[in-house]
Every structure is written in structure tokens, then in C-alpha cells.
Design brief:
With 713 residues, the chain is an alpha/beta fold. The protein contains 20 helices and 22 strands. Helix 4 (46-56) crosses helix 14. The radius of gyration is 26 Å and the shape is globular. Bound molecules: beta-D-glucopyranose. Beta-D-glucopyranose binds next to loops.
Amino acid sequence: MVSPKFLSIVPRMTRLTRLFFALFLLLPFSSRGDAPAPYQSPSVPVEQRVTDLLGRMTLDEKITLLSGSGYMTTHSIDRLGIPAFLTSDGPMGVRCFGPSTAYPDGVALAATWDAAQAHAAGVANGRDARARGVNILLAPGMNLYRAPLCGRNFEYYGEDPLVAGTIASAFIQGVQSQGVAATAKHFAGNEEEYARNKLNTVVDERTLRELYLKPFAMAVKAGVWCVMDSYNPLNGVHSTENDWLNNVYLKGELGFQGVVMSDWWACHDLIGMTNGGLDLEMPDNKLYNAKLLMPLLENGTLDMARIDDKVRRQLRMAFALGWFDRPQLIPSIPKDDPTSAAVALQGARESVVLLKNDGGLLPLDPAKVRNIVLVGHNADPAVTGGGGSGFVTPFHQVSVLQGLASAVGPGVKIARVPWNEKETAIPAQSAAQVRAADAVIVCVGFHDETSHMASPTRPGSEGEGADRPYTLPWGEADLIKSTAALNPRTVVILNAGGSVATAGWVSRVPAMLDAFYPGQDGGTAVAEILLGKTNPSGKLPFTWEKRWEDCPAYGNYPTARTPNANIYKEGVFAGYRGFDAKGVEPLFPFGFGLSYTTFDFSNAAATLDGSGNVQVTATIRNSGSRAGTDVVQVYIEPPQADVPRPVRELKAFTRIALAPGESKPVTLSIAKSDLAYWDPGTKAWVVTPGAYAARVGDSSRNLPLKTGFRIGN
Ligand code: BGC
């Protein structure tokens, strides 16, 4: 067996030494003079290797494996050749070991509605991890978007469990295809950053199962190796000690075979966490240490079988992913990898959502637009990501200003109007310049982003550790108004993890793009979209309300004014489910995003197979004059049930690229089990017999086709 210390010197070896080293690894153990133990042999089945190695470990060694060794790594046990596992955040790139590729953030990835892109992002993150010897990527973040204020919405995949679970599953499989473990976090009920360490999240079981736990269930099905328990208590018990969450639900019902780790310093009670299903305390051993554990094991308070199970899970993951059998570091993968950069750029192209385009102002016509003025803090330097443990320092970054400057042809003038955060309007000396421009691009949103935590004292920050205001930072709302008053050809570009207040300005601007946090090459993607080189295809993965008060979580969400309210009283009627139930008109609906072309839908039909699984077919046509991509969405309207159900819920979707005039038939499958609701009375999933409607279109509020099917009698 090769010691981890030895593996760590691999990158420093010359080519020739590496060759000898590889040949040495290939030599059978017997010819090296020490007969291999079963656990040392890659040909022995994983469970057998686990049992063999576990049997050779002392209790001290087992306890050593239960915790991190300080910051981003676990302990090695050299005697047995157990390597330390290196971890890294996640989720917008492999951030912990110097600069790295900065990908579009989670909400942007969700806005692509593209599982193939999520898989590609996972593969690229996995390669970036291998380029740094990282074993465990602390991603994806998959809490749901419940309210716009949550400081970490930008890391997550929007409000709908099917979109979040689909994107997360594809990302996970991509990461793990590279021999790197992915981590589904933060489990569970961590849908706000406000007082995240202590605020009790209260959610009824039906809501948990139908919404907030569903993406995690999909991640387990996709084979995720790690789950990270969140900081908050859930229904009165800290996640790291929550027997129902970790043991009954995750490991029992879902059959999760991997490792439950704590969020960083999220452990509070040794007996609670040992019995409550926590396998790995991170990042250090405040509680999982021999001094505290031994007496409790000796006097029978804690059961040795629990410790063995925790160790087993780690060993199982390590054997399954090959960490005992090869170096984790692949020095031939460049740290600044062009393959990764291409994936990041493509993600940004697919994610940007065109929210408004009155009068077809966009794309800017290169024949007419000779003079473009940029306004606002976020025009330059680039805003690549939100703050906190997700922030990645890239090797290069492209701002909107830089992106436009390199994309426009010769003879087009690009200028930036000076503006700083103390001003709320276009400075008087720049008014004439703004008025004369052929187009004005106002770049606004949160921007005070570094690897630091967000803070209520920095209103421009959006990130981990604090929630953010609903309003745009600084004087940006007034800046938009003053720009639009000077020039009707104003385009707003927003950087944010979710919706912001638009009252007073949104009706005054003809065009608006949501760029979220688009990663290192976001400026290139935005410029391509402004100039029509890329046709926008992103769709909102959350509902954008006209005012915060319209959001179903309003009043049930903790803020400085309502510090103790974290009861998910809106239940399953969160996001578009709540807007539909109450008949409230959103500003921009869930699933919505414009294109430079138009699409129409026809011929919807639904068929059932013998097991009650549904196939919905429809035809989509590009009825405009440009190539474009739309997302076909199927929402199911259930019959009356014993509990109030959402009017309709998204049950299937797919991206379709179409040439001008082209039509394509699409077929979307829905498993019968996906029609079920959780019955709190009988504590079971129930598929109500009766007539179901299937609605087809391209947003939760644009569903022109209706078809149907009957389940049961
Ligand atoms: C975050 C996690 C992150 C961990 C390690 C915590 O503060 O909540 O998402 O993975 O730090 O950086």
C-alpha cells in the first residue's frame, strides 16, 4: 500500500521518476515482498475490502477517521495506507487551493434547465478537483429558493424541486464520473442565512417531502457519496443530531450508503450526533475525539456498532471511488483548464434570462448602434460570483464592458459613464453623453463580493452568512430611473441570486436581462446576447413577484423585524404554487424567459402505459426568423384530493433547439409515482384516482396546450 505522504510528492517528481513510480504501483504486491491484504486489492469487491480493513483498525484509528484534521482535509492513517481525503468548496468552482475556473452560479445553472450542461459542469469541476488532488467537492448546494432575501440563493437551483433535483443529479454524476465525491448540501431546511446557526426551521412533513427534501432524494438516487448536514435545527433538533432526518429518512428510507458530514463547526452534542446519524465531524474534532468518545463507548452509553457504521461509510466511498488504488492528483490536468473555461462560458450563454424586450430593442442592431454607453458599478470590473464559501477567484475574468469592447466591430464607440455608489443619478456632466447614446447599458445588482461573508452593514453584498435586502443596493434604482429618463434605449443587466424590488423603474426600461452571477466569462456571454450572436434561452427558476409582500413566504420568513419566524406556514404553496393558488399575478413567472425568436405549440396528447406512467407529446415550432432554443414544460393539474394541492406542478421539461420555421415533436415521460402527494394522515404517498390535466407550454403562466389522462377507475 502506498502512503498518502508518498502520493503527495508525486507532483514534484520528474517525468522519469513518475514513470518508475507508476511501474512500481503496477507490480503485484507479492513481487514487492509483502503479500497484499484483501483490502489492498482493487479486484476484491468493495464491501469485502471495507470489512477487511475495518477488522484491522484499532478503536483509536476508527475514531481518528470520524473528524477533519483542521480545515479542508480528513486524517490519514499511514499504518494502514488510509489516505487523507482533501475537500474543497464548491459549488461555483474548486475554490480552496488558489485560483480556479469560476463557473456561473447555481441559480444560473438552473436557469439553463439543461441537464447536459449541468453534467458538463460536474465533469469540469471533477477535473478541476483532480488537478488539485481534491477527493470531495463540497457541492452542489441544493436548498430551495423560498424567498428572495436568502443570502445563498445564488448557490442553489431555484424554487422547484424537479428543476433543482434534475440539475443537481446531473452535476453530481458529472463530478463523480471523475473519481471525486460530490456533496449534497445543506441538509435540510437551510433556506435562509439569517441566524442560520440557531434559528429553528419548522416545516411539516408533507412540505418537507414534496418540496425541500425531494432534490436530496433525487441526489441519493443519482448516487451522491456525501451529504452535508446544515447549521440549523430542523423541527427542534439540529440537523447534525437529527435521527429522523439522517437515520430514518436518508439512510433508512432513501437507502443512502455514503457519508453524512457536518457543515463547518455545526456539531453541538456528542451523544446526539453519534446516535443521530452524523458520520464525519468537520472540520476538526471538537467532539469526535478519543478523550470524549472512549468513556461513552466503554460505559455502554454509545454503541460500537454506530462507530463501525460511520467508518464503513467512509471506507466504502474511498474504495468505490478508487482513492486507495491510484493518486487522486492528476498533474497533467492544467489548473487553468481551457476545457473548463469553455464549459463555464457555455453555461453563461445558456443561463442569461431575457426578461423584457419591448419594441425589440435587443439585439442591438450593429448597422445602427455606433455609440454604446455603459453605466453602473457592475459594468466593470466583472461580477463573477456571490460571496462566502462559494466565491472562486478565477484566473481571468471578463466584465460586460470588456466583453462588449471585444465583441463589437470596428467603428463602434463604447464609453463608460463614471458613477459611484454615493450618487443616485447620472452625473450632470454625463447627461448629454447618455442622451446621445444609441443604447445605454445599466449594470446593477449586488457586487460587494469577495471570499468574505456577506454582511448587513455592506448592503451591496450578497453571500453566505447574512440575508440581503430586497431593494437594489446603493442608489441603483434611482440610477436606472435617471438613465431611462435621459434615453429610452436603456437596457438593465442585473447581477443577483434572485428577484429584487423593481417598483418605480421596471416599467420605464424597455429591456432587461438577468445575468445572475455568470462566472469568469459572463461578460462575453452577455455581450454576445446584447449583440445577437447568442439567442437568449435561459428561463427563470424562481417566481419574480411584483412586490416582496406577494411572495408566499412573506411574513413567515425571518428578518430583523420578525427574528423568530421561520415557520414554513405557506406549506407546499411556495413559489409558483402559491401564486397560482392565490391567483396572484407575478411580475415574471417561474419558467419564463424571452427569446429573439418566437415559438408555438400544437398537438398535445397524453398516453398511459400499463403501469400508469404517463407520456405527454406535443409539437413545438420556431415561428420566428432566428435559430433559438426553448424549454418545453409540462405541468400536471391533479383531481381533487383529501388535502389541498397546488393547482398545477411542473412534472417534466426539456430544452429544444430549432432552426427558423422548424418543428419538432417532443415526448416527455412522467412516472406514475411523480403524480403522488404525501398524505399526512396515513403517512404515505397517494396517487389520487381520477382525471388529470396536462398543460404544455414554456412558463408556468404560458401553457397554451391542454390534454389529459385518467388514473384508475
Ligand atoms: C458553508 C458550507 C461550506 C463550508 C466549508 C460553511 O460555512 O456553509 O457550504 O462547504 O463552510 O467551507
